[in-house]
Amino acid sequence: MKILICDDDEAVVSMIRFKLTREKLGEVSVVNNGRDAKAILNDMHFDLVITDIHMPYCSGIEITQYIRETLKRSTPIIILSAEGLEDTVLQAFQMGATDFISKPFSLAELAIRVKRILSSQ
Questions:
Q1: What percent of the chain has pLDDT over 90?
Q2: Burial classification of residue 69, based on how many CB atoms lie within 10 Å of its CB (0-12 exposed, 13-18 middle, 19 or more buried)
Q3: pLDDT for 58-93, tens place per residue?
Q4: In the predicted model, is pLDDT for residue 119 greater than 70?
Q5: Measured distance CA(63)–CA(70) in Å, rounded
Q6: Within 10 Å of residue 42's Cβ, how many Cβ atoms?
Q7: Coil, helix or strand for 52?
Q8: Is residue 3 within 8 Å of residue 46, measured between CB atoms?
Q9: Burial of 72 by CB count in 10 Å (0-12 exposed, 13-18 middle, 19+ buried)?
Q10: What pairing do the DSSP bridges indicate for beta strands 2-6 and 48-52?
Q11: Which of 11, 25, 30, 83 has its CA 20 to 30 A from that of 55?
Q12: Contact 75, 56 (CB under 8 A)
């Protein structure tokens, strides 16, 4: 399985990458801004995208919209956000997000959600 992490917080990325690799959930690629996310999504297929909502150049919601509307892909998407406002959560789901996790989050919980999503494919 191929997993893309889109987040500009190096500490968060490092922890997620470590956990997913340790759990042997797949090959993990990382980008730290929305522009690079779009570029890699154009060139590669991923089985799961994990994206922060706030990133340079474009947001996780815009990445979700890009995957759904421009690329026409049904790739599962988990949105991460320190902003757990109801409007933000609803907007993420309306754009096609599969799941939403508020920061700070448990790496064990994230791994369980990733396993659930990947096993349903």
A1: 86
A2: exposed
A3: 999 999 999 999 999 999 999 998 876 778 888 889
A4: yes
A5: 10
A6: 10
A7: strand
A8: yes
A9: exposed
A10: parallel
A11: 25
A12: no
Q: What's the pLDDT tens digit per position in 12-53? A: 999 999 999 999 999 999 999 999 999 999 999 999 999 999
The answer as to whether 120 is a domain residue is no
Long-range contacts, stretch 53-56, CB < 8 angstroms, 24+ apart: 53/79, 53/80, 53/81, 53/83, 53/88, 53/92, 54/8, 54/81, 54/82, 54/83, 55/6, 55/7, 55/8, 56/8, 56/32
Give how many domains the chain has, as a whole number.
1
Note the pTM of the prediction, 2 decimals.
0.94
CATH number of the domain enclosing 58: 3.40.50.2300
Tokens of residue 59, six digits: 């947001």
Q: Are 80 and 101 in contact (CB under 8 A)?
A: yes
Encoded amino acid at 65, one letter: Q
Quote the domain boundaries for residue 109.
2-113
Provide the 3-class DSSP secondary structure of residue 29. Answer: strand
Question: Is-contact 76 49, C-beta < 8 A?
Answer: yes
